[in-house]
Amino acid sequence: AQTVTQSQPEMSVQEAETVTLSCTYDTSESDYYLFWYKQPPSRQMILVIRQEAYKQQNATENRFSVNFQKAAKSFSLKISDSQLGDAAMYFCAYRSAMNYGGSQGNLIFGKGTKLSVKP
Amino acid sequence: NAGVMQNPRHLVRRRGQEARLRCSPMKGHSHVYWYRQLPEEGLKFMVYLQKENIIDESGMPKERFSAEFPKEGPSILRIQQVVRGDSAAYFCASSPFTWGRYNEQFFGPGTRLTVL
How far apart are CA A88 and CA A71, in angstroms? Predict the structure, then answer.
């Protein structure tokens, strides 16, 4: 079974600085997707960034980028120029890319990292 | 195109009562996933449904929990005889489906269940 581990329960960053959130995962599959989700106090799950395992290039979305190390099974999120609105819980998630009779596979989440942004 | 809708947003039940959580997927989406988030935890998969079919219920507790996604109407997650340990946020996500392509799951705002 696949697992996702986030070893940093809490992180803090100064506004305008850069912070990196860590995530490792375990799988025997070769084709999968990795995600970072943001959950603000409203509890709405917001997709921040997605990485496809077969792509070597690291995904980037504006101030958010990932460092995907497939051999090491590591998937960290870098937030540049941190803003007060970035304060939230961040969840790393894994999803198989295999189709089983129409199933696209559920998401497997880590326990999350609570990010605080100091003004 | 309205997003995934869940209601109620907050639900309070006493121990032993039934809880019914509803999820209306985005228009055109025929796949629904239910997840549960216990306090201080990440989301855990419960069940995956297509219209009129349960595809994967490997994350559902064996007793008291059931889910359906009828041909017409929303998907329902039903918890019978609730206990305090059922207090959690329950999220629904929907996705379209096309063979051979990535299909994103879009999340609803969640229902927070409190069992007194």
Answer: 29
Question: Which residue in chain A has the smallest CA separation from B5?
Answer: A44
**In terms of Cα–Cα distance, which of A19, A51, A55 is closest to A35?**
A51
Name which of B47, B107, B111 to mutate to probe chain A: the one with the most chain A Cβ atoms within 10 A of its Cβ.
B107
Count interface pairs A-B at CB distance under 8 A. 58
Q: What is the pLDDT of residues A58-98, one digit of tens each?
A: 999 999 999 999 999 999 999 999 999 999 999 999 998 87
Neighbouring CB atoms inside 10 A of B84's CB total 9
DSSP classification of residue A85: G
Residue contact B104–A107, C-beta within 8 A: no
Query: Tokens 């099974």 label which residue?
Result: A73
Tell me chain B's radius of gyration from C-alpha atoms.
14
Nearest chain B residue to A4 by CA: give it.
B42
Q: Which residue has the higher pLDDT, A88 or B98?
A: A88
- B97 contact A CB<8A: yes
Q: What is the mean pLDDT of residues A42-61?
A: 92
What percent of chain A shows pLDDT beyond 70?
A: 95
pLDDT at residue A102, as a whole number:
47
| Averaged pLDDT, B102-110 | 87
Among B9, B29, B37, B54, the residue to mutate for chain A (most A Cβ within 10 A): B37
